[in-house]
Amino acid sequence: IQLTQSPSSLSASVGDRVTITCRASRGISSYLAWYQQKPGKAPKLLISAASTLQSGVPSRFSGSGSGADFTLTISSLQPEDFATYYCQQLNSYPRTFGQGTKLEIK
Amino acid sequence: QVQLVESGGGVVQPGRSLRLSCAASGFTLSNYGMHWVRQAPGKGLEWVAVISFDGSDKYYADSVKGRFTISRDTSKNTLYLQMNSLRTEDTAMFYCAKVSLGFGAIHMPDAFDVWGQGTMVTVSS
Description:
Number of helices of chain B: 0
Low-confidence stretches of chain B: none
Radius of gyration of chain B: 14 Å
Order of helices and strands of chain B: EEEEEEEEEEE
Shape of chain B: globular
Order of helices and strands of chain A: EEEEEEEEEE
Mean pLDDT of chain B: 97
Strand order of the largest sheet of chain A: 2-10-9-4-5-6
Largest sheet of chain A: 6 strands, mixed
Structural class of chain B: mainly beta
Oligomer: heterodimer
Structural class of chain A: mainly beta
Number of strands of chain A: 10
Distance between the termini of chain B: 40 Å
Largest sheet of chain B: 7 strands, mixed
Number of strands of chain B: 11
Low-confidence stretches of chain A: none
């Protein structure tokens, strides 16, 4: 299963609302996770099962979608949110990732 | 505190072997499925391999199948990745990661909730 994220990069300002899209090459129910990765660090799980926020993750992050189309939304960008975001499908093996979306400061 | 610490990376010539280790603490490795994920310099994440919580099932990415072997030592609470016939395109940071739910079947749609800090593998002549 291939995952295509859009956009590949995004410039935004603190306080902006941002949406990242992940499209699967076939339906994966709600078996999708979102991760955040900062330079030189390991990925961090933000959302599982398409919309379940992990403990400790700020509520400005939210996920939605099912089937083949999914979105990650950050309601009001904070300085610490500038990072690269990856979606990952958990429907089948291999557990593929999207190519990533780099969120940069405008 | 749940933690994963990888080791064993380094510089190796093409065709040679390397074994990565991932030491787990704060939880029992044999209760969770475990994965290896890699990231080539400046590139995205690539899933590599998985071992089920009971060690009975394993899956590999096509790019490493037949060359890499995932295993674990429950007495040491440590996960391994044996990498043989290394290629230049295997150059990457390698991360181990655990799934969030214990005792789940290997096909359960379980996200990776804890990651190690990574160990760098460079394959170069």
